[in-house]
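debug: dumping io for the single-chain case to check the tokenizer round-trip. Nothing else runs in this session.
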Amino acid sequence: MTNRQYRRPAARAVAAVACLLSLACAACTGGSDDTPPPDGKGEARGPIVVASGLDVTGSGGVRQQLIEEWNRRPENKSQQAKLVELPGGADQQRSQLLGALQSGSARYDVVNLDITWIPEFAEAGLISPMPGTGTGTGTGTGSGSGDDDGADAVDLDFIKRVHATTVWKSRSYARPFNTDVGLLYYRPDLLTAAGIQTGRQPTAAWRWDDLYASVGTLALSPDRTDDRAGWTTQLKQYEGLTANAIEAFASAGVELADSEGRYTSSPEKLKKGLDELLDRARLGRIQPAALSSDETAALTDFAAGRAVFMRHWPYVYGALKALLPPEAYSVNRLPGFAVLGGQNLAVTADSPRAENARELVTFLTSRESERCLLDAGFAATRASAYSNDSRWPCWPRVAAALRTAGDSPEAAGTAATPTGTPAPSGEGARKDQGASARDAYRRTLSAALNEAVQRPRTPYYGAFTHVLQSHVHALLAARSPDSDAAATELDADLRDAFAGK
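debug: decoded output
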């Protein structure tokens, strides 16, 4: 998911369903008495080390391919780059990075941070502000036009709301690498079978009431069984639950904090958000297993037909190719608000190769690189990646590597089908939805990103999300949920969390 990534919430769970991925161990190299000689710029030689979480496109995926493209260029012969993938989930990766950077035990020059970590790492002085950043908050429109308020002197092609995730206290500390946003996937085949014709299926103008109406019609279908439900999402007690809660809160007009991380809500406002989430999770509407579902479980229920609608992240559009025939799935924007996920590239404060590292970040987030990320299944952070402008195609050698990986059994054949058998791959593999459907998907994704909301910006995000998850999950699991009492208790604990107590 966003993100994801994300996490990106989404990136953390895809391995079990989309493909079996190899995790590279993080080599946290200790200090050395031998200082590498400087290069021509006066910077230390040695590889520019990029620390990142799991690449959902697989071992040797698009992130590694972009690193290799950088290394192939003659001008970068003296400043080669190396990708180190950190093991474990997002919380473990965050702890590893914090510990390594605070102790100086790891030689990371660039870190690929979940968007929610930027305030924490910036406040701790572990990452450096990007050059040219001023006192604004980033006003790039994503169209390459408009006035720049000085927060990002690079360009305005970054999608405005996505670029805002790099900013803390009016300074940009990173460049957006890959983003994420909640989307609504649905099963046209199952809707049609229940008598819901094409004209009554999801559109960009759908509201939650429209989804509930379709869920009510599905409930009348004679084919409905106890294990079938209208829709599913990720309500397990982890970051996916936080994303769902923030989306419900935003739809109810509830904001938890301002741009400086100060708590701004109240019990009355929180009750509105909690009631909105309870309404979405009402029995008879949602797949009962959703309360314990993460990204993998939700996708499995959707692919098996146990849920007709599903809230999920963009990477699922590519993953469904291995699970369902092209006519059996589609995607649109999520009703109401969708939350952002994703990762941003930041240069570490103690990097002896800071200038070279910034050049690498610029390359990895260029128009061509962002098109590669989109082609590989990530959500790109630049508006140009979603356009039909042919001036900035994916780097040719990266594009060729991605095509080869996409056709190989290693890339497609290890995904599990809903029955647990290997998905078809290579020769005889299921076809995708075609160029027209892919273009429509990209337009949908671009529109969703341009209207998405952020999770709270705070250096205490870890404490915040833990508090929110524990209270919300308990409320959803209660036989007789009391949103008044839950809102009062949540308000008190959130005040402490945002204050760092």
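debug: round-trip ok. The longest strand covers residues 340-347.
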